Amino acid sequence: MTLSDKIDSLMMKVEKPVRYVGGEFGSIMKNPEDVSVRYAFLFPDTYEVGMSHLGMKILYHTINKREDAWCERVFSPWVDMEEKMRENDIPLFSLESRTPVREFDLLGVTLQYEMSYTNILSALDLAGLPLRAADRHEGPFVVCGGPCAYNPEPLAPFVDFFVLGDGEVSTHQYIDVYKEWKASGRPREDFLKMIVGINITVTDLRMSDKIKKLKASE
Description:
It contains seven helices and six strands. It is an alpha/beta fold. It has a single domain, classed as Rossmann fold (3-Layer(aba) Sandwich). α5 links the parallel β3 and β4. The longest helix has 18 residues. The C terminus is likely disordered.
């Protein structure tokens, strides 16, 4: 049984299964073999809360305009679905292709309110990723942005880097750097050194004094 089949088998057992189906008008499908960067965008709340957020839609579409990247949406499952997922060894997955989050290159998380912080930790655990950034030696880099990113310390042990301000420019910048790093074969920690200076706080390096402030172009 494939992962998609296992997910489908739960749909009649949970409240509001439409949260986990996908395929809506405007959702974007790509061939994963045609892109070099796969980006999972996590809104750490339920589908209906996340889909009401305009910022997620803006970044989703601006990333997917790139021919070399595919951004897919991820939402926190409601308690009934999370329980069933854990019982059936189903990891946190993307809505578009139902790919496990741990198989992506980058995991972007929007920080809209502090009460979502525990959802982020639950999502990392459900994805099968170590909670602490220092313990992650493979899998996606975890990046957080949004209004709460201006106070990164509460989540600093769990996040690889934070993006400050609007992400329309800096998101493309660190995706470009990721491609360069990935092609170079350099160690994982080198990517974090390479992105310092593009409106980013790298929690492991504490190089906030070298952050360069950028504005999104009109």
